[in-house]
Amino acid sequence: xxxxxxxxxxxxxxxxxxxxxxxxxxxxxxxxxxxxxxxxxxxxxxxxxxxxxxxxxxxxxxxxxxxxxxxxxxxxxxxxxxxxxxxxxxxxxxxxxxxxxxxxxxxxxxxxxxxxxxxxxxxxxxxxxxxxxxxxxxxxxxxxxxxxxxxxxxxxxxxxxxxxxxxxxxxxxxxxxxxxxxxxxxxxxxxxxxxxxxxxxxxxxxxxxxxxxxxxxxxxxxxxxxxxxxxxxxxxxxxxxxxxxxxxxxxxxxxxxxxxxxxxxxxxxxxxxxxxxxxxxxxxxxxxxxxxxxxxxxxxxxxxxxxxxxxxxxxxxxxxxxxxxxxxxxxxxxxxxxxxxxxxxxxxxxxxxxxxxxxxxxxxxxxxxxxxxxxxxxxxxxxxxxx
Length: 387
Hints:
The protein has a 20-stranded antiparallel sheet that branches. By secondary structure, the protein is mainly beta. The protein contains three helices and 20 strands. The longest helix has 18 residues, at 2-19. The chain is globular.
């Protein structure tokens, strides 16, 4: 009898989701280069589609369940070779929150879940990077972004399929438990799943800030968490701690720390620190982010033992319905006892955005230099359509 009652309750919940009123929405993102090239070869290139993405979102009832489907094609983001090489990608996720204390989600959320860098992460340039007006966090592929977001702060789950469960035991406290599907959707031994597990605890202190503590499993295949562990050295995992201060009106401060736990083969620990700052006053907004990564090695000297530091700035000014940004960054890899030469990157990236109904336009200028390489340039243009 108890089993029958339990089955009836589950059926009622599923049926309630299936027949609840659905709300649909989404967006389309498209970006291209008007022209691009580099100052050494002098080869000027016109056009070149860089990326486009279609996203459809559905929610049911009062938003207690829903999902997202994303279709993406990525071009070549190197301004020197802007030809479009289609790399189609399909992803998506489903979620369900049957009570105020529990939520479950399965799939891949490209926008990420649980990322701890609230200023110096995705939100630093926001959707401008997706529409190619602003340099993306992973482009340029050099050092200017290397120590900002990707090491000091827990990066969340945006780049991999997973099963994650969220618990809300008390006001302000959230506990997220994430089980990665490292090899796509294929089955994996339970010990491999447990070795890659992620735990993310978030506590919102009302009117003061948000404290986040995270653990990313050893991640022997993909380095998902942004730490320095790798399968060859069997690192035990990576710990993250961060604090976001929001107690002062018009100002925000992000502080992050990453510590790579020592593993086998004589591995020493890696460490990263990061900070983000934002200030807003009327039409003016200023963002700054900086970080440093101190690498780790094993007894054989294998690993990333170099020190990398970086700085990024993003002042902006809103004039009527146009907002102008000056995005710029500097990154340095310091030399060490092994004789590796120091490297410096820099980029300058002014861009603007303008809304027009359900359309948002982006345009900019990008200048970038990595080490002794040539100065590359591009004039990107993109837009988002919301529906």
